[in-house]
């Protein structure tokens, strides 16, 4: 327990000390929110779908959590190649505890990032249907962070160098975001798109967040939660397996 | 303290460690001396539970690093060839984290932290971020950390690589002092002859994965009928230059340097 706690604390301390990074990582979601939210807003409105900003804000929050938690996992590559991970891996503690502590740290940081972007959304004009839904929204944010934090750990444990990072970015993280329904409604899509979006775990995260903030959802909050929890479990097993295989 | 019999490690076709046997006594300072790629680090990794040997037997204070990982880890302190500190944490936080990982109770942790920080002249700088430390300070902090949990054996893998003579001198003085005051057994690797001669009571010269000579510095010089250990070393291992191929780790390190200015 103490091992998990101290490694979790380390991630938070590092986050707190990287102010530049905090601001930099808020840049991208803010850009999406303003450029797309205001740029596509009129078209969306004309199509009779209401405010685009309202619609996409939960998607942008989900995106922030996705990026942040996957990056936390990739940070593992850094830690592993020079340095600090070795110190933890030769300590007389089970590896699974190290993996849990690190992953939970990344998850917590991702949730904080998500909350910061929520504030940005509110400033941009996003208005949740009701504030009582905030705990439900937090629950979904945590689930999304857990799913992708565990995935990040799995990736970070297997990647060999920084070149692999680009690969992950272009062929995994970006598609996960763009195919999740964060930017478009899931209704009336071509068949293959419906199929693909349903395979993307982030789809359920975005849908769950929309259910919490706006009261509208495609699958229903319960389905979303169950799907996310199942994927989280799967990825956690995958993550701890690949973490246990790390050779130094 | 350390018993190694017929230890081997194969990476594919390459025999990195080839049928090595030696014995390190309690309280001894024992050095592995050899050129690059001789198998020093591979041996240390096997002794410290990080690599599985292909063949042979290891006992570290009576425990098998393969089957009794946790027992072995509790008794040893390790300073790696590459730095393994967290630069974004302070010296104090790095040590505290280490203490927690090694199950040192809180009160004792504080006392030991103060002790090792003072011993390695880092007490005044304990609240500073490690990334602002010089190379010598980082090394000292790593050794201080390796000793925090009062290990029975301290493993030092080329601890003075890249340090200036002043830092090297000071570092060895402190290691010797600890060896005498706490009775900690020290197993070190180096390719600096003068260091091995100065610090170690016994030296094993290793090359191409095999121990080619073992004894006190005086014995080694007599055996090769040379005047200095450097000559003895060259006469034992030959004068050809060893090139190690660059790995992804080296590339990462380059990349890291670019990032951190």
Walk me through what this model shows.
The complex is a heterodimer of chains A (about 250) and B (about 260). Chain A is built from 11 helices and no strands. With about 250 residues, chain A is an all-alpha fold. The longest helix of chain A is centred in the first third of the chain and has 30 residues, at about 50-80. The two termini of chain A are about 25 Å apart. The relative contact order of chain A is 0.15. In chain B, helix 3 (about 90-100) packs across helix 4, helix 3 packs parallel to helix 5 (about 135-150) and helix 4 runs antiparallel to helix 5 (about 135-150). Chain B has about 260 residues and is α/β, with parallel strands linked by helices. The longest helix of chain B is centred in the middle third of the chain and has 18 residues, at about 165-180. The mean pLDDT of chain B is about 85. Chain B has helices at about 40-45, 70-75, 90-100, 105-120, 135-150, 165-180, 195-200, 215-225, 230-235, 250-260, and strands spanning about 1-10, 15-25, 30-35, 55-60, 75-80, 155, 185-190, 200-205, 210-215. The chains are: A mainly alpha (about 250), B alpha/beta (about 260).
Concise structural overview:
With about 250 residues, chain A is mainly alpha-helical. Helix content of chain A is about 80%, strand content about 0%. The longest helix of chain A is centred in the first third of the chain and has 30 residues, at about 50-80.
**SSE series of chain A:** HHHHHHHHHHH
Mean pLDDT of chain B: 86
How do the strands line up in the largest sheet of chain B? 5-6-7-3-8-9
- What is the helical fraction of chain B, as a range of percent? 40-55%
Q: Percent of residues of chain A in beta strands?
A: under 5%
Counting helices, strands and paired strands, the structural category of chain A is mainly alpha
Number of strands of chain A: 0
- Report the sheet with the most strands of chain A, covering strand number, pairing sense and barrel closure: none
Oligomer: heterodimer
How many alpha or pi helices of chain B? 10
Mean pLDDT across every amino acid position of chain A = 90
Give the C-alpha Rg of chain A: 18 Å
Greatest interface by residues involved: A-B, 28 and 36 residues
Unreliable segments of 5+ consecutive residues of chain B: none
H/E element string of chain B? Answer: EEEHEHEHHHEHEHEEHHH
């Amino acid at each position: 327990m103490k091992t998990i706690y101290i490694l979790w604390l380390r991630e938070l301390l590092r986050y707190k000390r990287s102010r530049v990074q905090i601001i930099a990582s808020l840049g991208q979601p803010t850009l999406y929110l303003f450029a797309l939210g205001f740029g596509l807003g009129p078209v969306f409105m004309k199509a009779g779908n209401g405010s685009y900003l309202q619609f996409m804000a939960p998607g942008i929050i989900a995106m922030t959590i996705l990026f942040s938690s996957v990056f936390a996992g990739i940070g593992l590559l850094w830690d592993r190649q020079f340095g600090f991970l070795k110190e933890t891996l030769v300590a007389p503690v089970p590896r699974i505890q190290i993996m849990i502590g690190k992953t939970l740290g990344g998850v917590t940081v991702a949730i904080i990032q998500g909350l910061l972007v929520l504030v940005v959304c509110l400033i941009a004009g996003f208005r949740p249907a009701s504030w009582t839904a905030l705990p439900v929204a937090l629950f979904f944010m945590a689930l999304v962070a857990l799913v992708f934090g565990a995935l990040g750990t799995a990736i970070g444990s297997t990647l060999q160098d920084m070149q692999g990072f680009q690969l992950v970015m272009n062929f995994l993280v970006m598609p996960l975001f763009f195919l999740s329904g964060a930017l478009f409604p899931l209704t009336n899509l071509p068949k293959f798109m419906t199929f693909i979006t349903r395979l993307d775990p982030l789809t359920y995260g975005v849908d769950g967040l929309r259910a919490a903030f706006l009261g509208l959802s495609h699958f229903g909050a319960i389905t979303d939660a169950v799907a996310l929890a199942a994927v989280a479990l799967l990825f956690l097993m995958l993550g701890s397996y690949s973490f246990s295989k790390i050779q130094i | 303290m350390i018993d190694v019999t017929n230890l081997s490690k194969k990476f594919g076709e390459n025999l990195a460690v080839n049928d090595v046997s030696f014995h390190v006594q309690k309280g001894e300072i024992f050095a592995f001396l050899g050129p690059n790629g001789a198998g020093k680090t591979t041996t240390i990794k096997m002794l410290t539970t990080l690599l599985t040997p292909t063949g042979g037997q290891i006992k570290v204070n009576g425990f098998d690093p393969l089957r009794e990982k946790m027992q072995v880890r509790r008794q040893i302190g390790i300073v790696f060839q590459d730095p393994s500190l967290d630069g974004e944490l302070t010296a104090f936080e790095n040590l505290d984290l280490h203490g927690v990982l090694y199950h040192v109770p809180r009160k004792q942790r504080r006392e030991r932290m103060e002790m090792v920080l003072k011993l390695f002249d880092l007490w005044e700088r304990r609240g500073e971020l490690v990334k602002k430390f010089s190379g010598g300070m980082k090394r000292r902090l790593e050794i201080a950390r390796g000793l925090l949990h009062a290990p029975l054996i301290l493993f030092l893998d080329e601890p003075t690589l890249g340090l200036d003579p002043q830092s090297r001198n000071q570092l060895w003085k402190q290691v010797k002092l600890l060896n005498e005051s706490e009775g900690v057994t020290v197993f070190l690797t180096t390719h600096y002859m003068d260091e091995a001669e100065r610090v170690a009571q016994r030296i094993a010269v290793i090359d191409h994965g095999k121990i080619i000579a073992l004894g006190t510095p005086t014995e080694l010089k007599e055996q090769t009928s040379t005047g200095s250990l450097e000559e003895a070393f060259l006469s034992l291992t030959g004068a050809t230059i060893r090139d190690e191929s660059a790995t992804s780790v080296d590339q990462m390190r380059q990349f890291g340097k670019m990032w951190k200015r």
